[in-house]
Amino acid sequence: MDKEVKEFEPRLIKEDDIYGEKAGYRLNLLRPNVYQFYSRTAGCHVFLIIGDELNVLIDTGIITKFNSFNYLLTTEVGLKVEDIDLVINTHEHFDHISSNAYFHCPIAAHRWAAVKIQHSDELITKGKKWGVDLTDLRINLWLEDRNIIDLGNMFLKVVETPGHTSGCICLYEPYKNYLFSGDTLFKGAISNIYESGSISEYIDSLEILNTLKLECFYPSHGRSVFGLDLVAQEIANSIEVAKMELNSFINKVRSKPLDKARPPPSLYNREEEDL
Ligand SMILES: [Fe+2]
Q: What's 83's domain CATH number?
């Protein structure tokens, strides 16, 4: 682990459980200037990075937890929503973008996520299915692989990681060697593959992550992983499991007689309740 991580143990700052049922965020300080709004129930974790030049928020989280986010931001971090300079969405799913409307700073996402968010593509974003209105959201900065955001005291490098959806990215700090892994890399589990995603692209994305020097990663759901060896092990396991899933699918398809093959129905022609 790098010097900074060795000298700094992540710690809980405050748990917002005023409404009970673990409905609020748990605020953790992961490392100097990096906060995690940890979601134990519905929704994703939200990360705040306080830079010398920019304060960046990674994902805005589920809308039902915005009050909890705002409470912890103001009372514990000492910032206001207006102090956030840039929001980056790791992908286009509703639980990562549904509080976007509360932020008036520029909002960034990969271009394949941006186009789906701006077209309110329900099949992909899943907002309506989960009772969240995602119309009229805009993405101001359309990102691509290897874009770099300079926060002053640290960098975030965009790593395209399609698979879970087509618009997934991870954000890599190339000098301190940590990664915000979105819904691409988790501890102890592989990602689900949703509409617009692809398991073969997912395997390729994991193999790209495997080329990075990674001392820890912070996923959008579940626990973070610390240590070069443990991170490498998680990536290797994920690649292995994803390859097994792909092979079992291929074998299933190949076992069907050719005369049963027919074009799949368009996903967009499904009945609404299927979405
Ligand atoms: Fe997702």
A: 3.60.15.10
